Amino acid sequence: SFKQEKDPKFWNTWAQQTLKNALSLQTLNQNKAKNLIFFLGDGMGVPTVTAARILKGQLSGQSGEETQLEMDKFPFVSLAKTYNTNAQVADSAGTATAFLCGVKANEGTVGVSAAAVRSQCNTTKGNEVTSILKWAKDAGKSVGLVTTTRVNHATPSASYAHSVDRDWLSDSAMPAEAVQDGCKDIARQLFENIPDINVIMGGGRKYMFPKNQVDVEYPDTAKYSGTRKDGRNLVGEWIEKMENKNGHYVWNKKQLLSLNPNNVDYLLGLFEPEDMTYDLERNPETDPSLTEMVEVAIKILKKNPNGFYLLVEGGRIDHGHHEGKAKQALYEAVEMDRAISRAGLMTSIHDTLTIVTADHSHVFNFGGYTHRGNTIFGLAPAVSDVDQKPFTAILYGNGPGYKLVNGGRENVSENNYQAQAAVPLSMETHGGEDVAVFAKGPMAHLLHGVHEQNYIPHVMAYASCIGQNRQHCAGHNQGSRLRPALPSIAALFTLIRLLF
């Protein structure tokens, strides 16, 4: 139905409507943010956002380019610079420390400043930095984290852990020396550092159980058995501790969806031994989707009259790209967009600041002068004028898709097809360019222009009157407007000078 697009009136009317909406934004939302929701698409660079938009549209029978993702509807968009203190192209640990703790850090480290050195246990002490999850908890809010990776993976772990190595997932993954020097593995820190995190959902069961204890879901698969050398059963300890606190542990979708959120104050959901499965391969009978997890999380968290903070990670967008499997990555991004939509329906922009961003990009792109509505996973319309062979629109700068093709090309339609890459690597790398930050709700306009990534949690804290600068909040009730305190003090001094 491109007929209407041939009429200039179509584009002019659309633009005028957009202009009208833009003008209404001049009245900035300066309410106090009761709730904070942070969506992190791991590896979701701008090309991934564009491609996911096209895919989402094509999945609903449109050509896709003109589709609006839920994040596209957010009124404020800025760019974040993603470099780590010691890396031009960042990793997920150093970036998570930036956008959760407000401090840039070295790659591979979580919840510690750049004074900490990766893998050197004795550089941890004194260099710990706290996250916005902790600031919100200390302010009396309910807090939660939901991810499609392991709950002790890089992104969520910067919320609660202080570790000089993102790979210290359980004590068996640590050098003996680090354990002797008193460093704790990340799984243990999840349960010990910030008591009473209200909602924890994702994968990662095997890091919580004693070595060789078989997994509840895959008893016959040795690699999914417990990994803990210290013999502790962290899940059992959590269940015991939460016995009289309306705490529930679940490990499958049926258990999760049978809970009545009104009777749940604490929820631990570990749905896989490692990362959760890709959405394209998910068993809808046994594994919840990201959207389903987010819905339950918000129902539990929003019972708190002081509001809540929730981190949601679409963590496997990144994994799809690393494997050169663009189809997996883009379906993960579309699922995260569904979760953003669901969260939007359950909250209000009047009292909830929602931010959507990525930790870093990937060397993923699509091009080749494809025609309008070309399947995002399809071929460019013409063959190469150099080697006369066809090529896909999606290409990677490096990664496992590097192949010297003799004659034919692989079938492009299957889920795990690896798009062609220029440089052979077993794992494709992150990209170094800025990522988009989408914001809506109270004080969302503070995310504008180009910023360092560590600025983001400072905005969230300012908007919700938690963390370090709260002087602008004095005497403000919920739903009231935030006004910077400084101009009024300046006005007072001027008045005093005039009077005397």
UniProtKB/TrEMBL annotation:
> Which residues fall in a coiled-coil region?
none
- Residues annotated for Zn(2+) binding in this entry: 42, 318, 322, 359-360, 430
UniProt keywords, alphabetically: Cell membrane, Glycoprotein, GPI-anchor, Hydrolase, Lipoprotein, Magnesium, Membrane, Metal-binding, Zinc
* Superkingdom of origin organism: Eukaryota
**Alphabetized Pfam families for the sequence:** Alk_phosphatase
**Topology versus the membrane:** Lipid-anchor; GPI-anchor
- Catalytic activity field: a phosphate monoester + H2O = an alcohol + phosphate
EC number(s) on file: 3.1.3.1
* Cofactor note (record): Binds 2 Zn(2+) ions. Binds 1 Mg(2+) ion.
Q: Where is the signal peptide?
A: none
InterPro entries named among the record's database cross-references: Alkaline_phosphatase, Alkaline_phosphatase_AS, Alkaline_phosphatase_core_sf
- EC class of this enzyme? hydrolase
Q: Which Gene3D superfamilies has this protein been placed in?
A: Alkaline Phosphatase, subunit A (3.40.720.10)
Q: Needs which cofactor?
A: Zn(2+); Mg(2+)
What is said about its interaction partners and assembly? Answer: Homodimer.
Would you identify the family this protein belongs to, as annotated?
Answer: Belongs to the alkaline phosphatase family.
Q: What is this protein called?
A: Alkaline phosphatase
Which organism is this entry from? Takifugu rubripes (Japanese pufferfish)
